[in-house]
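Re: S-adenosylmethionine structure - here you go.
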Amino acid sequence: RLHSHPRCRISTRHGIGTRAMTGSLVLVATPIGNLGDLTLRATETLSKVDVIACEDTRRTGNLLRHIGAKDFRYVVVNEHTEYDATNQIVDALNNGDDVALVSDAGTPGISDPGSLLVQAVIEAGHQVVPIPGASAAISTLSVGGLDTRRFFFEGFLPRDGKERTDRLAFLKSVPVTTVVYEAPHRIVQTLNELQQNLGGERRVVLARELTKIHEEIWRGSISDAIEHISNAEPIGEYVILIESAPPRPAVTEDLIDSALKSALVDGRSVKDAANDVADMFQLPKRDLYERALRLRGQL
Ligand code: SAM
């Protein structure tokens, strides 16, 4: 059984611990392209567990055949089945079976199914054990050349509507490197929208086909990225890294006054000038109204 992890209590099925029989859920990272990236622990685990929970039996079947694993039971876990699959998996763990969760590529639970299952398994009192490995986000961060002391993981942006507009507006001021996942047929639209919201000068890294033959890691401004992409073959999934938002200039009294004066000189009413400048510096409107009124008297 899976004794490789010191906290792994799979031995409880032999009577140690509080339960007579209990299994573990093992989250196994799989390659994001190159099969050589499957770790030794992943291979060992996938060959030994009783149940394989996966998104797609055909894809995972190919991987399992590649490592010579056989005699596995599958449970399909995807966005449509995660609820039912979770119940089946908790039952299997209660019966003492060990279950491995894999996704089509990379680390399960990262922009892939898994978090609901993990929560349920923890609540049911079973161990959840990681077998770490490839993740497109971490691979790109590590080679991107942007600041990685802190980063923000956005994953896939909402497809459309207000939800998407709100996220794009939010990304404008994220003060650390941001990671976005994107499919090839949407990359041009997403870069155009990033340009509209963040400006063309912001630096990005585009990583596609990581660990595969046509691996490409491109670095430059958003506007150059749009030009680069329009000349590129539309193949491969992308990771986009976005440089952190530039630090906001300190908002001084003088800065507020000069913004209010210029709005008033441009013919804005006291109320409109106060609202514009309040939005600009994210300050309370009422405070700025008093100030704009005073300044208009001085003009
Ligand atoms: N769980 C995976 C992980 O750990 O990275 C992510 C799965 S998510 C459904 C798929 C997205 O990951 C793709 O749309 C792409 O943004 C990114 N991705 C996966 N494999 C990639 C690769 N080989 N090169 C670049 N991006 C990749």
